[in-house]
Every structure is written in C-alpha cells, then in structure tokens.
Amino acid sequence: TGSASGGANTGTTTVAFVPKLQGIPYFEAMNAGGKKAAEELGIKWLYQGPTTADAAAQADIVRSFIQQKVDTLIVAPNDPDSMAPLLKQAQDAGIKVATADTDAPNSVREVFVNQTTEQNHGKALSESLMKAMGGSGEFAIVSCSETAANLNAYIDVIKKDVAANHAQAELVDLVYAGEDQAKAAAMATDLMNAHPNLKGIVGLCSAAAPGVAQAVKDAGKIGKVFTVGGGTPMSMAPYLKDGSSSAAVLWDVQNLGYLTAWTGKELADGKQLQSSFDVNATIKGVKYDPATKVELLGPPLVFTKDNVDQYKY
Amino acid sequence: MTITALKQPDAASQRKRGFGYRAAKMLLTQRIALLGLLTVIVLAVMVSLNSAGALSGSYDADYLAAALISAVPLAMLGLAQLMVILSGRGGIDLSVGAIVSLCGIVFGYSYGVWDLGLFVSILLTAAAGALCGAVNGFLVAYIGFPPLIATLATFYAFKSLALIISGQKPISTVQIQEFFSAAQAVEIPLIGQNLPNIPLGIFTFLIPTAALVWVLLNRTTFGRRLFALGTNDVAAAWAGVDTRANRMSAYVISGLISGLVAIVAVAQFASARPDAGVSGNGMALPAITIAVLGGVAITGGIGRVSGILLATLLVVWLNAGILLAFAGNEGTQFQLLALGVLLIGASLLNNLTRKKFGVLH
Amino acid sequence: MSEHPTTPRIAMRGISKNYGGVRAIRQADLTVQPGTVHALVGENGAGKSTLIKILAGAEQPDTGTIEFDGKPVTITSTTDAIRLGVQTVYQEPQLFPDLSITENIFVGREIKRGVRVDWAAQAAQIQELLDMIGLPHKLATAPVGDLSIAQQQQVSIAKAVAGDASILILDEPSAILTDAEISVLFSIVRRLTARGVAVIYISHRLDELFEIADTVTVMRDGQTLDTYDIQDLTVTKIAELMVGGILTEQREPRSFHNVAPTLELHNIDLGQLLNGINLQVRPGEILGLYGLLGSGVAEIAETVYGMKQPTGGRMLYQGKPMVNKGPAAARRRGITLVPANRSAQGVFSFQSIGFNISIGDLAKLSPLKGWVNKRRERDIVLDLIKRLGVKTPNENQPISAMSGGNAQKVVIARQLLSTPKLLVLAEPTQGVDVGAKEEIHRLIGQLAASGTAVLVVTTDLAEVLRISDRVLVVREGSIAAEFGPDATQVDILAAASGAVTTRKAS
Amino acid sequence: MSTHLQSRTPAAAGTPSPRKMLPRRVTGQEIVLIGIITVLWILLGFLTPAFLTPGSILPLLVAVAPIALVGVGMTFVIITAGIDVSVGAAIMVSAVITAQTMVATGIPLIPALLLSIGVGALLGLANGLLVAYGKIHAIIITFGTANLFQFIGLRLFGSSTVNGVPGTFDVFGRGEAGRTLGIPHSFAITLIVVAIAWWYLRHAASGRHLFAIGGNANAARLAGINVKPLVLMTYVITGALVGLAACFVIAQGTSTLDQSVGVGRELAVIAAVVIGGTSILGGRGSVLGTLLGAILVQTVSSGVTQLGWPSQLSDLFVGAAIIAAVGTDIIRERSRRKP
Ligand SMILES: Nc1ncnc2c1ncn2[C@@H]1O[C@H](COP(=O)(O)OP(=O)(O)OP(=O)(O)O)[C@@H](O)[C@H]1O
Ligand SMILES: Nc1ncnc2c1ncn2[C@@H]1O[C@H](COP(=O)(O)OP(=O)(O)OP(=O)(O)O)[C@@H](O)[C@H]1O
Ligand SMILES: [Mg+2]
Ligand SMILES: [Mg+2]
C-alpha cells in the first residue's frame, strides 16, 4: 500500500470534489471556481461527476477517490443518507471529508460549505416573486426531482413565507418536471391553462427556471405571468432581458467553488476555521458556525436584467 | 444411417485439428471462456497501467473488492433477466428497476417505520416483489401480452406507485441508517486476514441468489420446463408442460429477486428511495445488458448463471478501472463507450460463432 | 433418356455444400430437361432440400457450376434465381401470416402502377389462380395465418405457379396434402410441363412418382447416384437405390388380446369440428384413424390428449370416465402422443437429445419430486437411444444436427419413458425415409405387443393399412366407416372422400 | 371439388370486390383510440374548462409532434420486427451538433434542418448496418449504440451546456412564431409525414414488403425481397425523423441546451407505438395508430397536470393506458383468429 498522503500525487495537497452530476452549468461553474483556487493556492483539484444525478453512480466515483487516497474529499450528495456511510469509509481511510452545495447532516463530514441557508434562499425566491406579482394572486411551483431534499425545503419556506406575509397570494399547484427543461415548459403551459388567473410561477431548479420562462414567453403572457427561479445567469439572461423572468435567485457559484477548494486545503492542512473570515478580495465575510460545522458563503444573489451579464456561466 | 456417416469424419477431423483451433472454438462457442479471457485482459491491462503509474489510484485487490458492492444489485438483476429471457417468446423485464423502487419503500416502511423486525420485513418485501412479478407474469403468460409491452406498462405504473405511496420522500429512519452494516465490507473468516474485505451483500444476497437460480435451472424439473418452453413453446405444450404457469413463475422469480435487490439497495444507500431503481438510466437497462453480454440468447432457451456472474465482474472491474484511468468527467463518459463496444462486439462475435460452429452455449 | 436431344434447362455439376462440420451434399450433379418432371428422391438427410435450395438461391454452394439453357450462370440470391425463372415451393410453407392470400401470392413481384400496388389488377388475376388450385374466391382477402397448413401449402403452390416459371421446384408438396389436393397439383404440373416448364419434384411418396415423374435422380449421403427413366423403375427398386440395399417386406404377426378397452369415446363432439365420435381401442391393439386433412381426424387425437376439450359426449379410460384438463393430465394417466408437426410441435431444436427425451416425463428423473438426477437421466436416455436405434455419438448432441428420421425417433422416445398405456401417434413417419419408417413401424408393433393400446392418426394410406388391426375412416367430423386389416386402399380412400356413406361392419 | 375445405374456411362469404383487396384503411385499434381520446377530451373539457381551448390544445399538439415523428420511424422499424431503443440518445447527438453549429455559425433554418436530419440519418445508418448486415437482434444492437451515442453526445457537450441557442427553430416552437392560422407548424409537418408514411405502408410495394419482412423475414428473402436494404432503410428513416424531431425539441426547449435532452424519450416513443396497435412482434402496425397513441399519452399527462392531480400519477395512467390499449388489441385479434 502507498503512503498515507497520496498515491498518484506527490507532495501537493489533493482536493477532490464530486458534484451531483456533470455537464450542467451550475456544477461546471463550481468546477471553474475550484480550478481557479487550485492555481492560486497551489493545490491539486480533482473533479469527477456522474452523467446522471444518480446516487449509485456517484458512490462509484466516491469509491474511486477513496482509492486514490486524496487528501480531502468533498461531495455534493444526490442522496445525503446514502453518502453518509461512504464518507465514514473515507474518513477511516485517513481522508478529510466535507460536503458542499448539499449537506449530508447525519454524516461524519467535518465541514459543510453552504452557499446560503435554505431559509434565506426560499425567502429570496418568494420575495422576488411577490415583488413581481405585487404581493397577490395565484402562483404555482414547478420543481424538479421529487426527492431532492433542498428543493423540498425551499418549497416549505416559500409556503410559510407567503402564508405569513402575503395573505392575498395563493399557491395553487405544485408539479415535478425532473431535470428536463422541455417538460418544465410543457407543465408550466398546462398550469397556465388550468389556472387562467395564474400570476406567478417558480421554476425551482436550474432546469425548471428557464423552462417556465420559455413557457410564459411562448404563451405570449409576458407581463401577465411572472416567473422567478433558481437558474444560472447565462441560461437566464435572455429571459430576464425580455421580461419572461423577473429574477433568478442563486449565489455566486464560482465563488462557492473557490471556497470549496479553499476549505479543502484548510482541512488537509489541519487548520481550525475562524467564526468569520475573508478568503480573498472578492470572498469576504464568510461565516462559520463551529457548533453545526457549517460555512456560509453569504446571502443569495439575485440576478436581474441589470446585473446578469456580469456572470459568465 | 446417413447422418452418422456424415458426422463422424467431422468429429474425427476435429480431433486432428490443433490446439489453436480448439482454443479459438472454445472462446467463441463458450461465452464464459470469452468473458473469462476478457476479464483477465482487463485486469492485466489495468494492473500494467497501474505499475506504469498511468492510473490516478492504485488498481489493487482492495479496490477490486470494494467495487464489488455495485456488482451485487447488477448481477442479481441480471439473474432476474436471465429467468425471464430464458422463458422465451421475447421474454424481458423492463420493470425490475421500478420494482426495486417500490419494494424499497415497502421495506422502508416495514423495517424503518412500522418496526416489524428484519425477518418479517424481508419476507414482506420479497413477497411484494413476487407480487409485482406476478402482475407481469399474469399479463404475459395468461393474457398474452408481449413481455416488452407488459413490463413497459408496469415499469410506468410501479415507478409512479413508489413515488405516490412514499410521498416522494426517501425513508431514512435510524433503523434504516443502521441497516447499512448489511452492505458493509467484511473480512472473510479464517482465511480473511490476507484477503481484502468483501462487501457483505456478496455473501448475504448475491451468492445465495446465484446458487438458488443455478439449482433451479440446472437441477430442478422447473428449470427443465423453463428451458423447454423458452426453446419451443408449442413443443413444450405438446410435451405436457404447463407453459403458462411456468412462464408466469419466471416473472414471479424475477420480481422476487428485484424485491431482494430493493433490500440491498436500501442497505447500500442507507435510505429507502422511491426512485432507487429508476433514477438516471435506471437499473433495468444495465441488467439486460449484463444478461446479453453474459450470453443469454434474447430469443430464449439459452443462458447460464456463470455467464451473468462473469459479465458482471467484467463490467464492474472495467468501470472501476476506467474511473482511475480517466480523470474528470471523461471517466464516466468512457464507461458508456466501453459498455457499448462490449455489447456490440460480443454480439458480433456470437454471430461469427453461429456461422462457424453452429450452436452457441 | 439420359441422352436427351435438347439442351437441358438446368445442369448442376459438382455441387458441394457444408454446414459447419456437416457435409450436406458432396459433388452432386443434376440435369433437368425442359417440359419434364424430374423427381429427386433419397433418404432423410440425403441432401435433396439443400440441392434445390442452392438452385433457388436460398443457399450458396461451396463448389460447383450451374448452367441454365446451356449458359453458365451464378446464382447468389433468391432474386437471381427468380430472375432466371426459378420458382420454388419449399418444404416448409414460406408465407406471411398477417398478409392476405393475394398479397402473399404477389409478394416480391407486385403488379404496380409507379410505386403503387395495382390492387385492381392483382384482384383480377387472383381469381384465376384460386380457381386453378381449387380454393374458394372468398379466401382472397383472408390473412394466411387463418388458413390450415394444407391450405397454406396450396397458397405456396399458387405463389410459385403465378410467377413466370421456367423451372418449378416442389419440395415434398404432397406430404401434407390430401389425395384430392394432390390430383389438382398434378394437373397443374402437367399443364406447366406441356408449356415447357421443367419441374423438379421431391417426394417420399414413391408410388406417386409413377403418376407424375418422367425421370428420377436418386441421392444418398449427399451424393447424386444416377438418373433413371421412370419406366425402368419400380417402388421397390427406388427404395433399394435409396437405402443402398434390398428391402425385405416383413409383417410381424400381432397377437390381439380381446380384453376391456383402454379408451372408449362415446358421442364425442368438438364444436363444429367433431360430432358424435365413437371408438374403442384395447390393450395391444393398433387402431388406425384415416382421414383427409380437415376431416377432423387430427382433432380426435388432440381431444384424447387433452389439447382440446370436448363439447359433448363421454370419454372412458380404463373403464372410468375421464376429463383431460391438458396434456400433463393425460400423461399422468399414461396417455402419450407423438405430434404431427415435428419441427413445430416436437423438437426443442438447440437442446440436446437427452433433454429432448427426458422432457417427456421429468418425474422419472429423481425419486425426489421436482429434482433432476443427472446420472439417472443419462441412464434412462441412453437406454432409450439404444432401444430405438437412434444414430448418435452421444446423448449431448443437439437435436438440430440430426436427420428427420432420427429426430422423429427421439420424439417417439420421449413418449416411451414409462411404457404408455395408450400411445397416440400423429403422422408418425411424415417426411421420414424408407429405412427409418420401417424401424418406426416395427417399434409400434413391439409396443402393442407389450400391451400398449395404440392409436395411429395418419394421412398415409399405405401406412394405415400396413400397421393397423382396424381402420376407422373419419370424414367431416364423423366416423364414416370401419375396416378390418383385409381392406384395400381403394375401399378406404372411397370412404374418406365420401363415396361410401354406410358403415361397414368389420 | 374443395368440399373438404369448407369446415375450415374463415372470412366472410362471397367473392370480394377489388376494394376489399386493399389493406384496411383504419384498423380497429385506431377506432378505439379515437374513441378514447374523444371521451377523454370531452371529459377534460367538462372538468377543466380551459382544456378545450386553443391555448391548451395547441401546446399539446406541439408536444406530441416529436414523439409522433420519431414514432413513425419506430413504427416502420417495429413492423419489420425490429426495435430502436437508441432514439433518445440519437436525439441528443443531433440536437447538440445542430445547436452548436447554430451558435457558432448562425446558419439559417434550412441548412440547420438538413444538418440535423443528416446527422440523425447517419446515426440511423449505423444502427441499420449493424442490424441488417450484422444479423444481431435489434434490441441488443440499439442498446449498444444507445451507449455509444450517449458517449458521443456527452463528449460533444464537453461538460457544458450550449448557451444562447438562436431562435432559428422558433417556427417549430410553442409560441406565436410556431403557428400559421392557429395551426402549429411542427404538428402540421408531423401530420404530413404521417400521411406520407400511411400511404407508403398501405400502397407502395416496398411498404408492403416491410410487413412481409416482419411477418417472416426468411420467407421474404425467399420471395426475392431485398430484405437487408429495406431493413436498413427503416433505421435510416427513423434516424432522419430523429433529426427532424431534434429540431422540434430544440424549438420547444429554452435558449440553453443541456445534456438531459432526449434522455428517456425512447420509452415514450415505444409506448406511443404499441398503444397505437403496432405489434411488437412485427408484421402488423400503423402510423396513424402511433400518432393517436402519442396524442393519448400527452393528453393523459397534460390532463393530470391541468386537473391539479399529483404529476407522479400520470405515469400510472400511461401504464394503465398501455395495458388497456394493447389488451383490447390482443383480445380482438384472438377473437378474430377463432373461427
Ligand atoms: N442449416 C443447416 N445447418 C446444418 N446442417 C444442415 C442444415 N440444413 C441441412 N443440414 C444437414 O444437411 C443434410 C442434408 O439435409 P437436407 O435438408 O438437404 O436433406 P433432405 O434430403 O431434404 O432430407 P428430408 O427428406 O428429411 O427433407 C442433413 O444431414 C441435414 O442435417
Ligand atoms: N367498385 C369497384 N369496382 C372495381 N374496381 C374498383 C372498385 N373500387 C375500387 N376499385 C379499384 O381498386 C383499386 C383501389 O381503389 P382506389 O384507387 O380507390 O384506392 P385508393 O384511393 O388508393 O385507396 P382508398 O380506397 O383507401 O381511398 C383501384 O385500382 C380501383 O380501380
Ligand atoms: Mg428436405
Ligand atoms: Mg380512394
């Protein structure tokens, strides 16, 4: 067997990140941020994801990273529960483990690199939507995977926030379109037909957000039906500009990737995280809660037609 | 009479041919010989890449053993496909993945929520799987649905049911999380010190299932009847085989095995996910691929347990190697390429075999 | 006639063909003159079908040359052959079950206007063709899958005749046709030869050759022996040439025990197909059931065996009322059946000989129910292979590599795992060569002698007379007549085709 | 003279008119489907008043178009007793190549269409060559090529999305640009393709040969039909229609194309074909049925959403629809075969 600190790599710290799936702008942007960090911090950044958001395929990749004896292994789990035992296995092999983007709360991970809280994100979505809708009217949600924990948490926050603060607004339907833009668009069309008074649609994930906007555009209902969603800037830019989407709520994904890589290095070096710190000139005021071991990048970022062109992913 | 006169010189001439010819014939006619050779080639290539430092991690016994964890559901579902494909008349089961999802929820509730205890929960889950299989079997054997269509329909239905009864939420209570120990790697008693730890599922699920299927096919009259009706349905009926009941049984067994895989999947993922068997490309297509690669004739009546097991080993170890050989996203992409090439290559070889040597085993 | 004055229509020389290790034909020669019927005879597996498949372009030869009207040709596909005017009726009907009879007949050479099929023109031609082969007009639009096997064979013949044939190949067309249908076929053949068409005619019914053939080529072991004028031959002579030895007619006297019947049918009905069938068969007795195709004779066998459930009447088995839910139930009672269509109903093609035999009674394979004891299986199978004289190196050979006669013996062996109390044989020697036929007949005699009641259902007149103690003739779903062993072929045929309506006491 | 035949002769009495020589224009299955769809639409019209409005029906028809279009090719393939499970992955390859080319060069509509169709046909050619000349069961080949196409598609995507896809294909889209006189272009094109395919299968000699091949490939060969080129053709046609459908899919998507495009479409297409009464065993089938099958499936999933029922239910109904549709077909065939 090889030495404790690496099989293929010699000397430099290796940080591996396993996204939920490869090839979507969101995780590729995290990858870009991670690569940038690797250059600046002098570490080795490994990125490998499954072709579909599949827990089993992801597990195979995690196993191969354990085998590669990376220094830090960071995962955005498709299924938090199933990732927990694998993370334990990695830790037993002497690897520092963390999660990013999506947590595995019941696991041995040493840090969760969180973009923003579910509370904040959900609230930003509902506030953007209510602002566009003028605080009243019927709205619907097009979600993606039926089983995605974070999406389901956002839904709860939106429901509660609207009930508490916008009595005239009403959630009339909730549908699931998978990670399929065309299906999201078709379902949004059906929703607008079923509810002629529909005033707002939330496209919850990065596939649904442009899908619902496209549906509004196709139906010629720009200005009558307002959409918000969790889309990436470049995919949302055309819709933000033509008004079929009012706002895209996300965070600076490249910075999240950068922070993920940086955190990986800190873990590998055995350093203790401060409760609040700056990473570099652009990533400032990161919070860390030692009790829950959660890092927080900052408040969500709301893209509108005015700022969307600043982000190239 | 004439036939033997024609055949005997052939047998004699075969005896005279050299070792090379016989080896080639064996490789081409015996699918397991081909699979064995391919597995050895994969291992050899990977190990030499490994020693040349071309891999990003070491391709060693520990890794191979750890990779076996994904062999458990794959091979078991391959065995499920073996049963139904053998039964002939276009036998196939597209619904196995959906049954895994549905039965996983059944297990999640019975073990994780209602606390019925492991034994009862396993029985209940297996029974649920068998019931799903019985629906397929009834449609195929008694109503006369083409299997592809019956199982496509039940694929949609079971998949939908799993989401509905679970309320789209994975079941992951403490019991379920602790159940992961059932999938963990263990040391083999007595001789284990010098060997890598093997995933427990191999012993608790895969080997018993494989042994059971082997015995069923090779040592029981049910197996005989299954081969008979897969080879020639009409002749089987004339020979007094109850083709409907026996064909239905094949689907029931396929469902039963899928139910067991559901338990494996719950253990492996430490949660009962309503999309366990259908997320991504699902579990059915890889299982059918394994069956075909393992030499099961899609037309029925030909297939062996050893072929399934070897094909699984080949695919699992090849995939594990590819992940180490290609860094980044290419890794998982090249797995697709490898599977496609293997499948088409093996089928083309089959074809050559038929031309050159007649029957295939 | 070997020195024919005209150029031969077809001259095949030095043709060889191997299937893997099997040498199907070796250096075969065949010369056929225009305007003649050239019979091709030989034992099962002699290579007749393979030779004509090469001419039809369905198989490619390994060696050899083919001349057509004196000019060398290469035939690499059926399209090539069809272009030369080679039309073929294959041994197995080659039809499309979901297409209508008209489409089946015109498929591959539709009458077209542009790319479109000219349905009207085809409709006009089809009537003539149906008249010629004697099928009713209303069948023109019926899907072929709805027809009986014999009707399908007639459609195949119509299909071949409809093409502008210069050579017509008929591979055992008569095997599944009734005598009436055969005489229609012969008149068609004669009309074609009168127009100068060369006809190659393959048959195991040697007697009919004297009615239709001009010359006969005998094949043995994949080789063509010689070609003879039909005038120079007799049935015995042909049979001797085929097997390469002298055939001795041996009729073993059967002792008939007059005891309680094994099976009695009382007024059995089966929908429209059977009405009021009465029969009895006793231990040791061989009862022949003769009927033309479609007469219901096959349905009697199927009803006894439980494949079909009677809609009226009573069956008594060993004196007790019997209801057979299916073949499995029949087998448990000791009733077994050799099905008529060997390849479709009898053979598990790529499985071993052992498998093909033991499937008949799996319960015998181990004292433990549901279990298979391989050693015991081997012993049982080897014993049967020896008893029936199946020619094979070992029991693991796939049955697909065997000749028709040997495969038939394997199917019969399947029924003898435990000595049956009642054995039903449907067309036991169809498509089986003379030598094997002999052996199978002897075997049936032996079984009867050991106390088995035997019911032989056949459309082979000679066979039914030769082996039966009694013959029942079935016509239009009823027993038309009963004969003792002294009956003549003429008596039976007359009864079957409707000339005799009164029941003749035996 | 043929008295002995009488007890066995099926079909109606009397000499058929030439008209009856023609293959049936509309099959029983199609009539059943038209009935079911009509009932469903009326029912949905009552339950959710918006269902029978153009705003609801037109997007439904647009969504039907790609499935029905690929379904036409799949019907050809299945009639010859083949199957093509690679169409989902093939859509992905066609779509990504076309989208990338449009982004890079801004080519206009017709060249973009031809490119997509060409790529699709090429993929179909690969399938067809392997199936027709490799003599391997189609399901195995196309499982294999599905993996290969997916590999090619993912490599082309290069772990990224295609951003800023121009609106070249908007004429096939769900929006205003996609309609003339209220009729969606994509659906109109699909109707034309279905009509041509219907005529071809019913009247052209080579169309009839496809049924012959599916009924009995060996007999077709012996009858002098060039089986291999025809089988090859069905896969190439499927590929070309996949290429066209890929354009529709791009048009129905957003300005970003991601690698989930086409995934899992093969099952939806096969479902539409079998609901439409095409026998998976070959030899029997109709493209009109396929179109109706696709409409039925889309009606079910739209209906479920518009009724406000949980969207997970729609798969359950699709499963039930397959069983009901194919079940009635099986029972009808069986009763016809019984004299
Ligand atoms: N496709 C095949 N593959 C392997 N062997 C074959 C094949 N076809 C024929 N044979 C073998 O070739 C030999 C000649 O067969 P063929 O069918 O020509 O005989 P035949 O004279 O027509 O017999 P029959 O009277 O039974 O029809 C036989 O030994 C047969 O087993
Ligand atoms: N009543 C009839 N009497 C004689 N011939 C007819 C009659 N009806 C049709 N035909 C012939 O049958 C053939 C097929 O008819 P037709 O041209 O109407 O078919 P089609 O238009 O292609 O199909 P469809 O009947 O489905 O519209 C034609 O060649 C026509 O001449
Ligand atoms: Mg023959
Ligand atoms: Mg007309």
Automatic annotation (TrEMBL), chain B:
Cellular location(s): Cell membrane
Record's bilayer topology term: Multi-pass membrane protein
Keyword terms of this UniProt record: Cell membrane, Membrane, Transmembrane, Transmembrane helix
Pfam families: BPD_transp_2
Entry superkingdom: Bacteria
Parts of the chain that traverse the membrane: 32-51, 63-85, 92-112, 118-141, 148-165, 198-217, 250-271, 283-302, 309-328, 334-352
CDD domains per record: TM_PBP1_transp_AraH_like (cd06579)
Protein name from the UniProt record: ABC transporter permease
Origin species: Pseudarthrobacter humi
UniProtKB/TrEMBL annotation, chain C:
InterPro entries with a match to the protein in the record: AAA+_ATPase (IPR003593), ABC_carbohydrate_import_ATPase (IPR050107), ABC_transporter-like_ATP-bd (IPR003439), ABC_transporter-like_CS (IPR017871), P-loop_NTPase (IPR027417)
Domain of life: Bacteria
Protein's UniProt keywords contain Transport: yes
UniProt cross-references to Pfam families, sorted A to Z: ABC_tran
Domain ABC transporter: residue ranges: 10-246, 254-501
An example molecular function term from Gene Ontology annotations: ATP binding
SUPFAM superfamilies: P-loop containing nucleoside triphosphate hydrolases
Keywords: ATP-binding, Nucleotide-binding, Repeat, Transport
Listed PANTHER family: CARBOHYDRATE TRANSPORT ATP-BINDING PROTEIN MG119-RELATED, GALACTOFURANOSE TRANSPORTER ATP-BINDING PROTEIN YTFR
Protein name, UniProt field: Sugar ABC transporter ATP-binding protein
UniProtKB/TrEMBL annotation, chain D:
Transmembrane segments: 31-51, 57-78, 85-103, 109-131, 138-157, 177-201, 230-251, 263-281
Record-given protein name: ABC transporter permease
UniProt xrefs under PANTHER family: ABC TRANSPORTER PERMEASE PROTEIN YPHD-RELATED-RELATED, RIBOSE IMPORT PERMEASE PROTEIN RBSC
Cellular localisation: Cell membrane
Protein keywords: Cell membrane, Membrane, Transmembrane, Transmembrane helix
Stretches the record annotates as Disordered: 1-21
Membrane topology note: Multi-pass membrane protein
InterPro entries assigned to the protein according to its UniProt record, in alphabetical order: ABC_transp_permease
